[in-house]
């Protein structure tokens, strides 16, 4: 077995749990824990049910502290009770501490396997210490300098330790310009800091400024990937899909999809009511119906472009809430240009299909509908953000529904006005 | 100036270039290069135009090789000609080599500042070598072992070097189970490997298996972030937005948005034509119009949920092209359940609004429309992927347009059948 644990985990996941345990148990103890960590949660659960308690305790002991805490989160109360007494006290306490933080916080994804150093030892002594501690730590490439009360006072790179002058102390070479997060900070904020400063690990401190853990670069990648997926789903009205798409069952998918679809069924009654309100106008001029789908779809399409641009830019920090005024002015300019271009296109179709009066109605409607749709799409994420809701709730279907209803009103109002109909 | 270069860069970007250069030049030479690397491309360009040639050459020399190559990409032919003679030959060749790779490939984002070791030296000798080379390398935490022809034969972690037994050679402690990419591989494939194996850097080899560069964990974060943003935009029909959203100008945004909006204007003619085709049915029963927006929007909404789930799952590797059969069967089951639930909801509205016959028509239509919309949304990304197009081209508006046209046909066909109208 010279494969990477991640590759072995993929192969094991495809097997029944009994068979995968038969293979897994043949690996060395530390390697078993490494492979186990790469299995997905569903598979870990299945194994946890059949693996003998002593073996499971050995695996859990050897797992990295953050992976271990994740596993504990998933276990049933009975499984937890069975497992905990089989662990040493240090592991039990570590699990209790890490699982105390709410999901989605820095505390919930940090690991307590970090390397800490006092500031008054020499670089040579530090190297000796790190060398000894390396196997038990998630990384020694960045070690954290703490004072007597475990308060974080600096960070030092292994590279700087090994290239330090002979007599240098850790205090001489440590970096005191610290980038740290607090345990209750959002995990995404932590990941963004790692991305922004290109660092290998970020220290996590508690309310007393004491060092309690680190978040490593690979966690940052996972967090940013998961957050992007969540936003993708939310923009398409898929909520709280806790499983991977490949492993999601029919009931899981149904539950993740039905709520917003139902809300939108009722939301779209407004468009229907709008049409019903103009029934006389429509009856007098059935040709108007030909252009209805094009016009209202255009408002929705322009609006969903705007909302998606904003949702993503707000999520990545490219745009801040306070930028809304500047963005609004620019959006208005873009929307006017888009509306004019699309009005020209539809007017040509209109002349052939309904004559000059119809062409005028649909061209005017197009300009207004695209402008209004774009502005709704742009503003909605800002408004949601302002009220501390996730901007991604400004889903494409929601923006489209609002734009649709507005589009119906704009179109038939203009038609009634220009065509001077009842 | 004890701030992180990334923070200083943000502050400088808000100033006019002359002023930002006045501040920047006061930093030490290596620090100037670090800060300069964190500036966005637009700002780097502005500075490149006003910074004296000798200073610019010094900055470029001190930049990391991948950042330097990116900058060169952006320069105008005149700027390149002015800059290149001011550089030492080693830098000139390095730039030429790195900029030869097509954008989006591993070669285009790799850096040539990697640490390489022969296999026959001792760990102690290796440590001495790395210590000396550290300042010029992007990372020494992973060094790459090459043979006499520079072919990659292993990788070794600094951690293993410093904890190695006294007499161990690099060959004894190196990892020969290599994860590498080729220069022409997709940058996203490289980023996914880094994420999958939780590694700090990934070696890049050429067609002769020679080591030519490395891609580091922070590049992987940037690539995955950029790819997610591109997919977000594409799903909302925004194409090739080369600028950040915050810095995009009105013409840039207009160009990125207009093409698909225009295509969809013409695409939605099909829905209009469908409605026109059923003009008699509509005229005989205007109440049908009330439900039209709800029904066709429901098909589009269900379809865009399905397509988004597939686009993202295909992008992250959660689902493979070959899974389409399994996914199709599951999608059908979910869509039937969704359709039934939504049909029940709309039937209630239908009874109050149009009587039992209308309720039957719209309930039947809802079931069929949701199923067809979902299946279109699910299949389109697979079909595009099969023909080697980006699955994200299955944008929400495209899926919605197709679902709209299908919805019109389904609805009025059923109405004509059930209501036995002309």
UniProtKB/TrEMBL annotation, chains A, B:
CDD domains: CBS_pair_Mg_transporter. It is found in: Cell membrane; Membrane. Residues 110-173, 174-230 form the CBS domain. Keywords: CBS domain, Cell membrane, Magnesium, Membrane, Metal-binding, Transmembrane, Transmembrane helix, Transport. It comes from the Bacteria. GO terms for cellular component: plasma membrane. The keyword Transmembrane applies. Coiled coil: none annotated. GO terms for molecular function: magnesium ion transmembrane transporter activity; metal ion binding. Pfam families: CBS, MgtE, MgtE_N. It is a multi-pass membrane protein. Its main location: membrane. Belongs to the SLC41A transporter family. Homodimer. This is Magnesium transporter MgtE. It comes from Sphingobium indicum BiD32.
């Amino acid at each position: 077995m010279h494969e990477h644990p991640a590759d072995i985990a993929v192969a094991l996941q495809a097997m029944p749990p009994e068979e995968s345990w038969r293979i897994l148990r043949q690996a060395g103890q530390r390697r078993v824990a490494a492979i186990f960590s790469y299995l997905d949660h569903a598979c870990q659960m299945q194994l946890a049910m059949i693996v003998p308690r002593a073996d499971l305790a050995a695996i859990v002991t050897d797992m990295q502290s953050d992976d271990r805490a994740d596993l504990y989160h998933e276990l049933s109360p009975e499984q937890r009770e069975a497992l905990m007494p089989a662990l040493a006290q240090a592991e039990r306490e570590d699990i209790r501490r890490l699982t105390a933080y709410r999901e989605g916080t820095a505390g919930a994804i940090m690991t307590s396997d970090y390397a800490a150093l006092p500031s008054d030892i020499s670089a040579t002594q530090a190297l000796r210490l790190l060398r000894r501690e390396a196997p038990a730590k998630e990384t020694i490439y960045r070690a954290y300098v703490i004072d007597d009360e475990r308060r974080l006072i600096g960070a030092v790179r292994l590279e700087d330790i090994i290239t330090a002058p002979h007599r240098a102390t850790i205090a001489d070479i440590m970096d005191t310009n610290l980038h740290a997060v607090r345990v209750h900070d959002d995990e995404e904020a932590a990941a963004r800091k790692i991305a922004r400063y290109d660092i290998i690990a970020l220290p996590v401190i508690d309310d007393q400024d004491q060092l309690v853990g680190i978040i490593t670069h690979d966690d940052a990648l996972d967090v940013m990937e998961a957050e992007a997926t969540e936003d993708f789903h939310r923009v398409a009205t898929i909520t709280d899909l806790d499983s991977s798409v490949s492993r999601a069952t029919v009931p899981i998918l149904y539950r993740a999809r039905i709520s917003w679809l139902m809300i939108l069924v009722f939301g779209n009654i407004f468009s229907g009511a709008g049409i019903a309100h103009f029934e006389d106008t429509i009856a007098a001029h059935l040709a108007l119906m030909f252009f209805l789908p094009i016009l209202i779809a255009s408002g929705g399409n322009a609006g969903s472009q705007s909302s998606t641009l904003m949702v993503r830019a707000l999520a990545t920090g490219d745009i801040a809430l306070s930028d809304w005024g500047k963005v609004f002015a620019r959006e208005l300019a873009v929307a006017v240009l888009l509306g004019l271009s699309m009005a020209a296109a539809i007017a040509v179709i209109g002349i052939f299909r309904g004559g000059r009066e119809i062409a005028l109605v649909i061209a005017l409607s197009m300009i207004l509908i695209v402008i209004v749709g774009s502005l709704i799409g742009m503003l909605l994420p800002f408004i949601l953000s302002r009220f501390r809701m996730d901007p991604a709730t400004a889903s494409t279907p929601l923006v489209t529904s609002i734009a649709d209803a507005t589009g119906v009103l704009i179109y038939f109002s203009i038609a009634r006005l220009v065509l001077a109909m009842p």
